[in-house]
Structures are given as structure tokens and as C-alpha cells.
Please model this.
Amino acid sequence: MLGKWIVVSAIILTVWGLFATSAPVGWWTWLARMLPRDAEAGGGLMVAVVQLAITLGATSGGILFDRIGYQATFAASALVLVLAALSALLTMRQGRYQ
Model:
């Protein structure tokens, strides 16, 4: 809807870039705190999990898109996002993320 305006597109891309590039920094900081003696092993595991998530997301999204349409793909993405946010919130409240 607002994609025709270059300024709006630039602002949206800037905001997305700020959030998207800060997430991996947070992951690696958390990893170093949780596994101070095994950060290299944890890093390998983190890379494997991220690659698995990309693969599963692309595969399941493609299947949903082919079988049901783009609405199902967006709905499933929103559901996964909400579940991830709730999981992070619950973990934080239990004191596991310090």
C-alpha cells in the first residue's frame, strides 16, 4: 500500500535492518553467557539450528503456499511468531534467561 513512496520504503527497510541485524548479536551474547567454556560447540549447534529452521520454514511455507495459498502461509507465520514470543516471555519470567 505504501510501497510507491520511496521514503516510506526506506524507513521500513531501515527499521527492519536494525532489528534483523541485532538479533544474531543477542543470540551470540546469550550463547557466550550460557556456555562460557564451550562457546565453539554451542556456536556450531546454533548454526545447525538456524539452518534447520530456515529449511523447515521454507519447506512448510512452500507446501502451505502450493496447497492453500498465501493467506495460509501468512497465518502460519503469524502463529509461529506469536508462539515464539510467548515462549521467550515465559522463559524470561522463569529466570532461565539471565
